[in-house]
Write a structure and sequence with these properties.
The chain has about 210 residues and is an alpha/beta fold. It is about 25% helix and about 20% strand.
């Protein structure tokens, strides 16, 4: 297994599965409107994404901010979340994933796994998060939602995988290369019946927001 292994605590505890929301995008193809602040159901889109993670069973949520981070902090109501700034957000998703995993490693309570989601996928709700979260078995678990047989988000990374994932997270790749290299270890969780994995990338996609 790649990465660090946890020391035994001497007591049995329930695994802690955190939510990791990547919300740093600047919306380049949306005229420079930060994705976290797009309006959905009358509120910033980031609030919806945090709620989905919590309702899906993530005990704590870390949110990686980048574009207009100060505005997001001022305008979005995100109580109880750990907000982390990624000053290199313009480099792509990889840098945000590294920052988010580092934040989880530094958490006061040991985190056993992270369910990673993207702020610009409002068609993925709590039901999909709950299914992927339920795939956790050990800190070496890799799991991902699938849609019509194709891997998508959210994804679950056991803590023993984080170092290897972070090492390969560059540019807009995120964990893509790591997941390709470890495809045989991934538990695919069909979410086709409960979620739609579209992204809000262009002006035409704004029709999906309510």
């Amino acid at each position: 297994m790649t990465g660090e292994t946890r020391e035994p605590t001497g007591e049995t505890r329930e695994p802690l599965v955190a939510g990791l929301l990547l919300a740093a995008g600047g919306g380049r193809r949306l005229g420079g409107r930060p994705k976290a602040l797009l309006r959905h159901r009358g509120r910033p889109l980031v609030e919806n994404a945090v709620r989905v993670l919590r309702e899906g069973g993530c005990e704590t949520v870390h949110v990686v901010l980048g574009a207009a981070a100060d505005r997001v902090r001022a305008e979005a109501v995100l109580p109880g979340c750990v907000l982390v700034d990624n000053p290199e957000w313009a480099e792509g998703m990889g840098s945000s994933l590294r920052v988010g995993l580092a934040s989880l490693r530094a958490a006061a309570l040991p985190v056993d796994a992270a369910v990673v989601s993207l702020v610009d996928q409002p068609g993925i709700g709590a039901a999909a998060v709950a299914r992927v979260r339920a795939a956790y078995r050990t800190p070496g678990t890799l799991a991902a939602a699938s849609y019509d047989g194709k891997r998508g988000h959210p994804v679950l990374f056991g803590a023993d995988r984080w170092a290897g994932i972070a090492a390969g997270a560059v540019g807009d790749q995120g964990a893509r290369d790591y997941l390709k290299a470890h495809r045989d270890a991934i538990t695919l969780v069909d979410c086709s019946d409960v979620a739609e994995p579209y992204d809000i990338d262009t002006e035409a996609d704004l029709v999906h927001l309510e």
